[in-house]
């Protein structure tokens, strides 16, 4: 996810967060809760490219046999939405104000998560909206 949130000091990469959630979760909802815990407690960021200094935040599509969730993040902020039909994720935020829950650190109610946190310029050049 290319967001408008500045990268802090090196922290957990998306793959680190994913591995930790898989190791510690029995259900998709537990994985959502674990990912939120890791992001709020340890942050996310760090060098995500081998030769380039690429940094980004993460989105997750998490499913088990009974439920599926989309969790999108921007730094320490997040919003998640239960999947009701068919969903995909890409490198563009997709959750608007139709989330099931958002970060408690976001004080305003009814916030449009995509509009508030997306870096629109980089998302445009990365064609993320086209792939959703």
TrEMBL record:
The keyword Hydrolase applies. Keywords: Dipeptidase, Hydrolase, Protease. GO terms for molecular function: dipeptidase activity. Its EC number is 3.4.13.-. It comes from the Bacteria. It is an enzyme of class 3 (hydrolase). The keyword Hydrolase applies. InterPro entries: Peptidase_C69. This is C69 family dipeptidase. It comes from Anaerocellum danielii.
């Amino acid at each position: 996810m290319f967001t408008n949130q500045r990268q802090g000091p090196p922290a957990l990469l998306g793959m680190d967060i994913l591995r930790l959630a898989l190791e510690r979760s029995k259900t998709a909802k537990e994985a959502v809760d674990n990912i939120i815990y890791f992001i709020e407690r340890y942050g996310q960021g760090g060098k995500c490219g081998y030769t380039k200094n690429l940094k980004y935040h993460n989105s997750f599509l998490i499913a088990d046999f009974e439920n599926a969730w989309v969790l999108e993040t921007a730094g320490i902020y997040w919003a998640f939405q239960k999947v009701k039909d068919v969903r995909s994720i890409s490198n563009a935020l997709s959750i608007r104000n139709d989330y099931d829950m958002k970060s408690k650190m976001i004080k305003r109610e009814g916030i449009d998560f995509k509009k508030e946190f997306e870096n629109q310029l980089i998302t445009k050049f990365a064609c993320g909206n086209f792939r959703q």
